[in-house]
Amino acid sequence: MRDTAFEMATSNIRYGQGVTAEVGMDAADLGLRRVLVVTDANLAQRSPVAVVRQSLEDAGVTHELFDGVRVEPTDASFQEAIRVATPGEFDGYIAVGGGSSIDTAKAANLYATHPPDDFLDYVNAPIGAGKPPPGPLKPLIAIPTTAGTGSETTGVAIFDLVEMEAKTGIAHRRLKPILGIVDPDNTRQLPPAVAASSGLDVLSHALESYTAIPYDERPRPERPILRPAYQGANPISDLWSLEALRLVSTYLPRAINGEDDVEARGQMLLAAAFAGIGFGN
């Protein structure tokens, strides 16, 4: 039987220059006392992470830094983060970086909060069992530093399963960050080549979402919780994808050619978030 329904999972986004410095207040307002900051070794030495750590200290929120994120995460790098998160007694997570950092934080949060019998239990079928998380996760705040994956708006974590030489992932709405802090200041130092390649990622996400198989041509799940995050093209996702395409066509050339073009860099961050909302639903 084909599905007759689609579901819109909302994404909370805060946009503006300098809003990264508000993350400590957000954590405190959520009642978080101890958080894990997830990033990579390069970003750990740069301004976005420094601003996050200072904001947490100012708000009285203790934190631990995990900077072992790997570009293009693998099952091994996910499990390294999980080994830090599981005994850490963290009541929240803050991811700072591109999709690799945000996806690693999603996985760490999931596996530390609801440890499975086998690593592949939550991994998408047919590689894994594709089991849904049995309950809510800890709060995750995502702070993107590239205008590419839009991972701050999705419930998806992508990684390479090295043994099978396969790219796969974990997808469920419960993985979605509770807040994406989208700050143009965090992409001002992005090299033109990275701005170009990440911008093409936005283009791909928006196109793939808009041209996906429609939701009503897919099988109907036995239970609503089993309806996948990738449920098929639908009228709401189409709106976000089309707006992302418009922003890319207008601002990507400027974002590549002007590192100090704050408007263009900011609009590309919004395009990444919009495309993420599109393909994430």
Task: Describe the 3D structure.
The protein has 281 residues and is an alpha/beta fold. It contains 7 helices and 8 strands; from the N terminus they run E-H-E-H-E-H-E-H-E-E-E-E-H-H-H. It has helices spanning 23-29, 47-58, 75-85, 99-113, 192-210, 235-257, 262-279, and strands spanning 13-15, 34-38, 62-66, 92-97, 140-144, 156-161, 166-171, 179-182. The mean pLDDT is 94.
Give a topology summary:
Layout: E1 13-15, H1 23-29, E2 34-38, H2 47-58, E3 62-66, H3 75-85, E4 92-97, H4 99-113, E5 140-144, E6 156-161, E7 166-171, E8 179-182, H5 192-210, H6 235-257, H7 262-279
Parallel strand pairs: 1-8, 2-3, 2-4, 4-5, 5-8
Antiparallel strand pairs: 6-7
Describe the structure using short key phrases.
single chain; 281 residues; alpha/beta; Rossmann fold; Dehydroquinate synthase-like, alpha domain; six-stranded parallel β-sheet; two-stranded antiparallel sheet; 7 helices; 14% strand; globular
